[in-house]
Structure formats: C-alpha cells, structure tokens
Amino acid sequence: MEIRRFKLKITSYERIPVLDHGYVELIESWGSDERIIEAARMSTDKGFLGWGPKYVCDKCRVEGVEGLETCIEGSCLGTVKRVEGDEKLLKYLYEHKHATPFEMAGAVFEIQAPIMVFREWHRHRTQSYSELSARYTSLPNVNYVPTVERLMLNSKTNKQAGTIKGADELTEEGARAYIWDLECEYKDQEEFYQRSLKMGVPKELARVHIGVGRYSRMRAQANLRNWLAFLTLRMAPDAQWEIRQYANIVGEQLSKLYPRTWELFSSGRSK
Ligand SMILES: Cc1cc2nc3c(=O)[nH]c(=O)nc-3n(C[C@H](O)[C@H](O)[C@H](O)COP(=O)(O)OP(=O)(O)OC[C@H]3O[C@@H](n4cnc5c(N)ncnc54)[C@H](O)[C@@H]3O)c2cc1C
Q1: Are residues 46 and 75 in the same domain?
Q2: Residue 4: how many CB atoms within 10 A of its CB?
Q3: Is 126 touching ligand 1 by the criterion CB < 6 Å?
Q4: Active site residue 35
C-alpha cells in the first residue's frame, strides 16, 4: 500500500490566554482525518480513497462535476451519480464506536492553570502529564483571581456551582470585597512562602500553606479519542466554569487539526 503524506492544517502554535494568567499552547500534534481512515482501512489494504462527494459516471467511471446529469466523456452518455467519499466511513467509525483508528492521531498541549483546575484535569487517567514541581523550583507568584462576573455566575442549574445552605446572596459589592480579601490572602501566602524558603525550610515543605488558586504549568498528551472523551466531560455545562474555559480552547485547536472528526464530535454533542 502506498503511504501518502498529508499536510496538517497548522493551527496556531501560540499561547492562547485563559482566565487571568493561564494559557493553552499546542506543542505538537500528529495524525489527521485522512490518517484515521488509512488506519481503519488496514483491514482491507486500501488506504485513504478521498473525500467526497464525487460525481462519477456509472458507465465509464470518469469523474464529472456537480450538476451534470449525463456523462460527456466521448460518446459515453452514462448517468453521472453522486458518490460519497471517505467521510461516510469516518462517520460510520465514529457513530459505531470503532474508536481505535481515532487513537492514531493526538496532540500535546502546554497548559498554565490554577492548581484546582489541574486537580480536576488529572483525574483523566488516559492522558500523560508532566508538571512543574514545587520540590525542585520555587513556585511563581501567580494566582487566580476570579472576576466579579465569574463570582456572580452562580448557576441555578449546576448544583456543584452552588453556595452553602443558608449563605447570603452574593452582591456585586460582596464579590468585590471577596476579591480584595483574596488578593491580601495571596500576598500573605507569598510573603510566608518567601520567608520560609529564606530561613531554610525545604521547598517541598515551604509550600504547604499555598492554596489551589496558585497557578501551575504542565504538558498533557493524549490521543484524539481520549481528548474527545475529556472534552465531552469538561466542555459540558456541569463542568466547573474554569476548566471549561481550558477545554474550549483545546477543542478549538483540535477542530482545526481534525475538522471532519470534530464535526462528528460536535454534532454528537448537540443531539
Ligand atoms: C462534572 C464532574 C463532576 C465530578 N465530580 C467529582 C467528584 O465529586 N468527586 C470525584 O472524585 N470525582 C469527580 N469527577 C471526576 C470523575 O469521576 C472522573 O474521575 C473524571 O471525569 C475522569 O473521567 P474518566 O474516568 O472517564 O477519564 P479517564 O481516567 O481518562 O478514563 C477514560 C476512560 O477509560 C476507562 N478507564 C480508565 N481507567 C479505568 C479503570 N481504572 N477502570 C475501568 N475503566 C477505566 C473508562 O472507560 C474511562 O471512562 C467529576 C467529573 C466531572 C466531569
């Protein structure tokens, strides 16, 4: 079987800002919609045959153009028929959960996010991670401060975003006061951290008081099948708003790399 080279539709290899100090950066990717088809066709030794639709004469098999009903190849006069391309196979694989070919593509992202986002992210065991270590380097003083709008986004439909029983209703003034207190808290945390490091407390212990709002950085790698499983959970409305912002960016990048698979994923989500 001939091995074809497919040009990847390069998406932006730049840091896309998320939240107040976070980012998502595509580091590398592999595979393509075409490679997924090629992998699936190993069973029949046929490879990728091309995307459709194509308009083919049922008599001489010459390709025509859309809108032409009769073949004009010599004196053929056969009927030009619309023939589906490999998008049909891709759809079949996706809808019937023949998922292994989707593992032939994948991507690595670098992510800077609050530790609380990583706590949720790392539950996804099918990704590989490598994260900044506060045992080996002191933590950068970068902390997440939610906006007033975010604090007021207390969805009634999402139980996990709720407040405790008997809590007051948060006002804009209350949200601003919270932000002020939070910034003071972060400042105190950092002062204590630096003081502890200077007095010789080991890095691995000097961090014990630091909260989950502190930013960390990691690389995460997964194949396309597992990225889509991650996005199914983390782009959903019941996922925490912060991780959703990251998942949306990962999704945008994947949509450019694997547009046909992405279309199937998106239409599956909206059903
Ligand atoms: C909205 C939301 C709320 C959540 N709330 C909580 C919570 O309150 N407390 C909490 O602890 N977690 C919570 N989680 C985390 C959740 O339980 C999962 O751990 C997380 O979403 C990872 O999903 P996963 O296991 O499908 O992913 P992965 O670990 O990436 O696994 C992908 C798939 O591989 C298979 N798999 C992987 N490992 C195993 C295994 N050991 N055995 C069998 N099959 C396996 C499964 O089919 C799985 O779906 C929440 C998640 C979401 C999205």
Answers
A1: no
A2: 10
A3: yes
A4: no
Tally of domains within the chain: 2
Tens of pLDDT, residues 36-74:
999 999 989 889 999 988 888 888 888 877 888 888 888
φ and ψ at residue 217, rounded to 5 degrees: -140, 140
Gap between the Cα atoms of 249 and 262, Å rounded = 13
Looking at the fold, whether 72 and 168 belong to one and the same domain comes out as no
125 lines ligand 1 (CB under 6 A): yes
Quick check: ipTM above 0.90? yes
Mutate to test the pocket of ligand 1, among 117, 126, 224 (most ligand atoms within 8 A of CB): 126
81 plus 138 within the same structural domain? no
Q: How is residue 236 written in tokens?
A: 């959903």
Determine the structural domain holding residue 186 and report its residue range.
16-51+86-270
Residue located via tokens 């912060």? 242
Query: Which one, of 74, 90, 80, lies nearest residue 55 by Cα?
Result: 80
Active-site annotation holder among 207, 234, 244, 260: 234
Per-residue pLDDT tens over the stretch 75-113 = 888 888 888 999 999 999 999 999 999 999 999 999 999
